[in-house]
């Protein structure tokens, strides 16, 4: 028990630069208090003293603002930073070296008995306000962004963000296999048609931005083919070249949006 407490305090020093002394951590960190009281409640639960275990859990919630069901399985060196509003369900399982920030929910999506809460493997980090809901596994060293809503299994070593959560792949540049020249061509083309994907930065490794990149690449390729066809037609009919399409304007885009939002489009 004392060894585990030492590990918990060291975990705080490893993951919170605001920690200054072991005494400060022990006296003022609700995450430490919550984990200690949960271990006592879990022991009572294992010895079939379930009413007493729930009572200790309620005291834990009142004192720390962190609600952990006494049946939940928690590994070593769990760090709950700030902690207020954290909820960990009955069948949740947490591995070693996991970090949870305030407002995290490890919950279920069904009222049926049995495994209904998530399993977090070693090294998982869950950002503030994230909701991890369902009986699936979050892989080793995965990271869940703040306010993400996760309802499906998460592979190891990836980051998920958003609602519903989606993956941010590592090393997206190497996966996309595009050169800086190609990237600049895509960005120039996007600028020429007035396209800006929700103000996302060019280097943001977001799957939605990557989907836009693929779409723009396809549009650019299609435009090149159309230009070649126009050149061939112009050779046969020079007057064809005098006909030019008017570029899209912001007013055109607003008209399209108004049509989309009209009751007739439903």
What structural class do helix, strand and pairing data support? alpha/beta
Cross-sheet strand order for the largest sheet: 3-6-9-12-14-15
- Order of secondary-structure elements: HHHHEEEEEEEEEEEEEEEHHHH
Global outline: elongated
Q: What's the gyration radius in Å?
A: 27 Å
Topology diagram in text:
Elements: H1 2-15, H2 22-28, H3 30-46, H4 50-64, E1 67-68, E2 73-74, E3 79-80, E4 87-88, E5 93-94, E6 99-100, E7 105-107, E8 119-120, E9 125-126, E10 131-133, E11 137-138, E12 143-144, E13 149-150, E14 159-161, E15 166-168, H5 172-176, H6 180-192, H7 207-236, H8 250-261
Parallel strand pairs: 1-4, 2-5, 3-6, 4-7, 5-8, 6-9, 7-10, 8-11, 9-12, 10-13, 12-14
Antiparallel strand pairs: 14-15
Helix pairs in contact: 3-4
What does this structure look like?
- This protein is of the alpha/beta class and 266 residues long.
- The chain has two domains: 2-168, UDP N-Acetylglucosamine Acyltransferase, domain 1 (3 Solenoid); 173-265, no CATH class.
- Helix content is 42%, strand content 13%.
- It contains eight helices and 15 strands.
- The chain has helices at residues 2-15, 22-28, 30-46, 50-64, 172-176, 180-192, 207-236, 250-261, and strands at 67-68, 73-74, 79-80, 87-88, 93-94, 99-100, 105-107, 119-120, 125-126, 131-133, 137-138, 143-144, 149-150, 159-161, 166-168.
- The strands form three sheets. It has a six-stranded mixed β-sheet with strand order 3-6-9-12-14-15. Strands 1-4-7-10-13 form a five-stranded parallel β-sheet. Strands 2-5-8-11 form a four-stranded parallel β-sheet, with no helix packed on it.
- α3 packs antiparallel against α4.
- It is elongated.
- The N and C termini lie far apart (63 Å).
């Amino acid at each position: 028990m004392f060894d585990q407490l030492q590990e918990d305090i060291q975990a705080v020093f490893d993951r919170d630069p605001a920690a200054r002394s072991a005494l400060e951590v022990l006296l003022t960190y609700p995450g430490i208090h919550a984990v200690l009281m949960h271990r006592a409640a879990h022991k009572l639960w294992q010895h079939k003293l379930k009413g007493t275990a729930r009572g200790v859990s309620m005291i834990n919630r009142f004192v720390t603002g962190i609600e952990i069901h006494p049946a939940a399985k928690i590994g070593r060196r769990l760090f709950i930073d700030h902690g207020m509003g954290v909820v960990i369900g009955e069948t949740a399982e947490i591995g070693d070296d996991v970090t949870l920030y305030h407002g995290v929910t490890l919950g279920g999506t069904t009222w049926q008995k049995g495994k209904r809460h998530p399993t977090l493997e070693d090294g998982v980090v869950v950002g503030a306000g994230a909701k991890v809901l369902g009986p699936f596994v979050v892989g080793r060293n995965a990271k869940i962004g703040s306010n993400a809503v996760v309802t499906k299994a998460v592979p190891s070593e990836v980051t998920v963000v958003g609602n519903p959560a989606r993956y941010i792949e590592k090393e997206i540049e190497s996966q996309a296999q595009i050169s800086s020249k190609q990237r600049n061509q895509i960005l120039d083309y996007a600028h020429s048609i007035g396209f800006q994907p929700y103000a996302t930065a060019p280097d943001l490794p977001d799957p939605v931005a990557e989907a836009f990149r693929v779409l723009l690449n396809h549009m650019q390729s299609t435009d090149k083919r159309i230009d070649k066809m126009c050149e061939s037609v112009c050779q046969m009919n020079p007057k064809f070249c005098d006909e030019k399409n008017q570029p899209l304007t912001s007013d055109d885009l607003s008209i399209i949006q108004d049509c989309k939002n009209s009751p007739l489009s439903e």
